[in-house]
Amino acid sequence: MKKSLPLTPVAGNGLLDRRLFLQSGLVLGAAQLVAGNAKAAAARPEWMSVPGEPFTLYGQPAQFEEEVVRYPAPNRVLRNNGASWTPLHRLEGMITPNGLHYERHHNGVPQIDPAQHRLLVHGLVRQPAFFSIDNLLRYPMRSQICFVECGGNSNAGWNKNPSRAEAGYFHGLVSCSEWTGVPLSTVLSEVGIDKKAKWLIADGADAFAMNISVPIEKAMDDAILALYQNGERLRPENGYPLRLILPGWEGVLNVKWLRALKAVEKPIMARNETARYTELLPSGEARMFTFTMEAKSLITSPSGGMVLKQGPGLYQVTGLAWSGRGRIKQVDVSADGGKTWAPAELQDPVLPKAFTRFRIPWQWDGSPAVLKSRAVDETGYVQPEREQLIADRGRQGFYHYNAIVTWGVDEYGEVTHVYDTEQKQSGTDVSIDADWD
Amino acid sequence: MKKSLPLTPVAGNGLLDRRLFLQSGLVLGAAQLVAGNAKAAAARPEWMSVPGEPFTLYGQPAQFEEEVVRYPAPNRVLRNNGASWTPLHRLEGMITPNGLHYERHHNGVPQIDPAQHRLLVHGLVRQPAFFSIDNLLRYPMRSQICFVECGGNSNAGWNKNPSRAEAGYFHGLVSCSEWTGVPLSTVLSEVGIDKKAKWLIADGADAFAMNISVPIEKAMDDAILALYQNGERLRPENGYPLRLILPGWEGVLNVKWLRALKAVEKPIMARNETARYTELLPSGEARMFTFTMEAKSLITSPSGGMVLKQGPGLYQVTGLAWSGRGRIKQVDVSADGGKTWAPAELQDPVLPKAFTRFRIPWQWDGSPAVLKSRAVDETGYVQPEREQLIADRGRQGFYHYNAIVTWGVDEYGEVTHVYDTEQKQSGTDVSIDADWD
User: Fold this and answer.
1) Of A261, A352, B45, B163, which is most buried by a Cβ count within 10 Å?
2) ipTM of this predicted complex?
3) Cβ(B335)–Cβ(B369) under 8 Å?
């Protein structure tokens, strides 16, 4: 017999041991008891009386899930510029399905014929060369499950008032896929990189003509010329037919529709690494080339806009943690606004630079509560509180917001984003339609 | 400096060291050299001149990938009964995207309203109970990346003549997803299972009224009441809103549209565990309750129907291996019909009861070759040659075909399925439209 774990909370306000698997008779937290004859109670539903739908060549989500979609926020002037958020609050596990991977475009999604597409590798190389998609498909590949996150993700956190957006539409400019393609180091070895080359200028084949500078060390380390996402070929909005993947690094560097890599001595100082994707600090200096996405976590359920409608009792608290520096080592959860913390269970496999799902059972007693999660990665980096992040960076940053997220639960079970430890916040609504440009 | 690995083959007919990452100047296997000015050569494609397509709520594959679909084979009489195959030969990595997960239905796909769906758990229990989807969503969950494989997968391998189907349409009644849901042991503990109960009878809510017997040990071990597949809620054709997942076990036991679990002393001896999903052995006895899917592997590229159209040179040989008993330990590849073998690289993470992607570089010299792969799992089980499997099981089995798959490559680079070590086979075509019933 397995020894029973106590239902005694391991931290304030009802957090239970993460290893708690419910034992016989302990909880009956959520079931509906059957009174009388069970078989008679189980009437056949109507869909058992009619033959079902036929086979499909390519399946789609259930009609009842039509609200589980991305949230697009196009730029007010240039409609093809903007972003769309992944509904993280409606998902579970670590994989983001391809149809829901976040988007960030500067001039829409090009429709590229893969038979015509070429990657040019040139500059400080021994032998410049083109690679067609068919060429690339012949090389030995590598797969990596990793997140891609926009540098501007969660930027509503810099606002003075808490966001009224749901968790995914606030923090969902991050998604996690299995990317497969040719190691960039293979292709660079083919063309022979000159020792003087310190950067690669990556060009996209979209109508914005995206370009950005990538340090050669990262290119030779774990960069992938990705052809596949979650098993199938890339989706158009994620760079079909070829995308540069730099695991753990800011999304803008993961150039979509990749058409050229030029080896050079110095960065190109493109718009998206000077005017944008840099951060003005309180000192008046700007942070530039802030490549690595630092450790972050987010409770996805319960989260803003949800209601614990079944009343007091057992709930799963679950969310995601990730770090561009490597593996997540620990995620602590608090139900009392940060006074006490308990370690959440991390779902295996815990992979470097990938989403890590965390979960902890919570016995909600029906009184107001304040939920937080705090990620620690394998380098020892600890996700900061918002006050600390603002003290370090000021509020002119826009990018790289990774502070602890706080959800208030009121006595009706309604969940809202809060900045302090009070359960209800009276701040005015803020727009999440950031001025993408 | 990294020490160069030799291009000397490690096994017959051009198999190269699995750790070979191409070094400068070694191969230039597939690139197209640029003559003259590289920049001038890189003319802007037409899609850089027009704004791209707008944001989408739920993305779809590229129009150029419209041939990457499932292959449905409905029963000739009852059109809603049959199977559809995953195009494994068009995929890479370990995850199968949800739109391409294989299907096996007995009377079509029911369209179930999740608000009305209930799971009844009854029989030899202390307290029978209903669980709505909302009830289940409150319990702490577990995720597992694992394959689901139909017991009848690859059954064309029993035929006298080699199959002319592409690899996925021959072996693709297997797919691999991240499944997330409530551990079945949690729910069974809630209702209190009687010690006399040895089996659970699982009922589906489809118009076939699927039912089958599951040993209680498996139910209490790693079974999952799955609500999510690859991050999002289940697709209708894979059991929406609730599916029983038994990692590593025959697909038919992973009951879709799960509506009831009854704890009993003996199996129900349903049609799908007596007349079907059993195997007549040479001795005249029948194998029954053959739950575990044994180790198997398959080269997905190059594979049947493909052509090495770029001629002699470097190619990636890649495929999938999996075992219902646990982790894959090793995959050996042969290019000379099994005379010599070399170990392939296994892609991390290697997970129990999940697809494991293997890869090995191959220098094709343009002469006929015969490719094979052979999986070994962590229990030491070795995937058998076809002759051995037939000697053990006879040819009346239909189910559980897991023999080594052999692809012949001719001097034109055309790849076909063969049974012997000759590169060209003259057998007549066989139908892959199995008589699903």
Assistant:
1) A261
2) 0.93
3) yes
